Amino acid sequence: MKEYNHLKIEKKWQKYWEEKKTFKAKNDGKKFYSLIEFPYPSGSGLHVGHIRSNTAMDIISRKRRMEGYNVLYPIGWDAFGLPTENYAIKTGIEPAKVTKQNTDTFRKQLKTLGFSFDWSREVNTTDPAYYKWTQWIFLKFLEKGLAYKAKSYINWCPSCKIGLANEEAVGGICERCGTETIKKEKEQWMLGITKYADRLDKDLDFVDYPERVKTQQRNWIGKSEGALIKFDNIEVFTTRPDTIFGATFIAVAGKENRFTGRYVTNPATKENVPVWEVDYVMEDYGTGALMGVPAHDERDFEFSKKYKLPVKTVVERLSINATGQSKPKDDLPFIERNCVDVIVKHWSLNKYLCLQWKKVDWRTFVTGGIEKGQTPEEAARMEVREETGYTDLKFIKEIGVYHSKFYHGPKKVNKFAHFHGMYFELQSDIQEEVIAEEKEKHELHWVDYDKVISFIKDDENAMGWNLLTNESFSVFTGEGILVNSGKFSSLTSQEAKKQITEFVGGKMVTKYKLRDWIFSRQRYWGEPIPVIFCAKCGIVPVSEKDLPVELPKVKNYQPTDNGESPLANISKWVNVKCPKCKGPAERETDTMPNWAGSSWYYLRYTDPKNKKEFASKKNLKYWLMPKQGFGGVDWYNGGMEHTTLHLLYSRFWHKFLYDLKLVPTPEPYRKRTSHGMILAEGGDKMSKSKGNVINPDDIVKTYGADTLRLYEMFIGPFEQSVAWNTESIIGSRRFIEKVWRIGANISAESSLPGSLSPRARGALPLGPSACETPCQENSAFIKKLLHKTIKKVSEDIENMRFNTAVSSMMILTGEMEKMESIDIKDYKKFLKILAPFAPHITEEIWQSLGEKKSIILSSWPKWDESLIKDTEIKIMIQVNGKVRAEIMVGIDAGEAEIKDKALKDEGVLKHISGKDVKKVIYVKNRLINIVV
RNA sequence: GCCCGGAUGGCGGAACUGGUAUACGCGCACGACUUAAAAUCGUGUCUCGCAAGGGAUGUGGGUUCGAUUCCCACUCCGGGCACCA
Asked: Which of A15, A615, A818, A926 is deepest in the core (most CB within 10 A)?
């Protein structure tokens, strides 16, 4: 590991980049904006887990630069400042000092790793120069009526003595210390995020986020469309107004289930229904009251069972065949028919009577129409007798009614069938003769209980069976066809919703789970809310020229016992003159949450030193204007833990600023990705308390920064969590040394120190491929592999598949090392694609090969498709799906030729001789499968 | 309870759209070089079998000429939401 002094080399290049500022914009013609979610200061320091996403973004950013883009890749600090505060409280060191200390350490660590941040755009969100603008934006919210004071419950942690936001007290447990929280009522500042709920939901359609992130955001917003309907003086919210005829009680929020003794009128049926207090109804969702529809809601059903309330079915199942042979034909009208679907149990075995149709691929129970004047039971008996001959039937029960729209192949018509599911048990095998015509239609099967579902195959045909055997089908919560609903009967749920809502005088509304954002914190560390309370003038905003309202220097920033902010005790700071009337007034002592500064820091990156505005319009436009889709930050990588709150909050702020015409795009981020965590060696989360934290400095000291970077990328799929393993890191180091060795060997003029010992040099010559084949062929082979690798690495970086990119470069160097000589141009191309991964060592080799400019100023190599194309391809030959041989054929060999060659192959003949070749399947450029 | 991921050698993991399962790396074993060690290079390394062959991608089934990949059921692990009418 001491063949060259990697630490020296890395230091040399860190310094070089610092001085030359190689990473400054070099091409204004194109633009790109990549963003990293920075590592935030915490007590435990930066660990290898933090480094991973930075490395990934650094690789992308370096590649972009080589592709000629102007890259904005800034660095920010402490937007998620909570850990600092937390650590400060624990240690008693002043938060500002902790931040300063940590920031310096981290800055040094990040530089060591060679990240190509644009340090001149550094943003520190806890700096008053920055949070001035956070306060300024808050005042805009206030001006537009989106910031308001309201009574609200806070979760108070008796141990931390801190009021917690909802997200910090999940399930009533303090996220910081695990203590159970207490609810306290308090006047709090709120931000009206619910006004943006609809747009925050809708605009997800236009951004490039992973599907799961979108889903999580949508769930959080919780949009649902329904109706407000009055039952006398009680208004309920329901998403299922179509079930109102089945509403047999009204449930209002309460602590226990006790009947209130009151009755109200169901506006649809005009019947009186009882009003119950119910513990599963939430006071703050919808209207705090709901209509109980036991037949079509599981909780209502449970409740009605317990208190013996009537269950009234008003919606029946409807299935429409969407695909395949039974899909209704568009040009045919539907023929409605009442039918029976008859399930018949065997007289002694646990088997059931099923039919396999002969003319179509249908598997059903006995079915048929109900003739005029027949009861369903009579019809069922008749059908069983006609189709199967069995007569000794005992009627057990009617299973239910379900509807189906399908195309009846044998009869060539669209059918709209209303099935009555009928269940019989056969008493004996007494059987009459079945007429020939019926026998032609289908064949009879007795199917085992547990095979029925797989025999019937089609879900819709198995509806009767599911209703009979599966309890979860007992409450139908889906949409279907209305029954017992007066003039709305036979409408579909979809059709009925609007009509019924109108009929009962209700109105359609959209509700969200999302609540307005509680924006106050009773803590020291946060931007003070820039508001003054005056006895005469009320709430007065601090004027813009007095911003920022800075945090006062305090001795004790610990939270108070009474739930007030620590700032409340500092009368010097609190007591001010009212800006309007100059009378005595008091400052707001609440501060903003850590999410505030992080909601817009990316905007400041475009113009971090601006003193007049939070960022100039010109800069915002340059970096954010749509390149694709909605525009915004081109690429934002961050941890999964921020996919709901932070992402949603910053989207909200951005949209608000967009409405004020202060930012040019309606969405902040065009593309969002998330990295998986690096876990400690045991697979646990890294944490200081567990003592399993891997410090990047230690790794760098032993293996070098390039090795660490490579390993972080190689260790596993980027979006997946992986456990760290220090043992494996040596592989990445060996790879780098191999690259170095090839570089040292490649040219006599190379100024690289002779990295190969004479012994190793002696051992090197040049594996079998170098000796056995002529040199020219070798060089063509390497060229081809190189171009394949360029393609692979280029594409893999874009898709964040760094692990396979590294792997393919390892394969290439493995082959290169076997060669007697390598074209220096080819080797340089390889260095270029490796450069983003291992910037220091590639830079050193690059310049030792006579290059004067930094490798990052060179251009990203292009691959040549014609070189990649194979002239001969390998075709696998399978016999009955098993690989038996392989043949080489020319790229443009015809199918017949290949098949012919395959059938004559010795290895194949062994397996097919004496057997009939039934079928030969040829998959282009891949394989031949011979079926015998 | 609901929603979303995942499960492949001793280990991290690879496999394009259903087409050679285990690339690449680690570890291990053997060999070369060396007085020796380290480093480096080479060979081998899923499993049963002497071989021909057979069996393996969490478990069980299905579709297919062919399934790690698609479908159904289940087990375990991870993440998110949780009386949302």
From this structure: A615
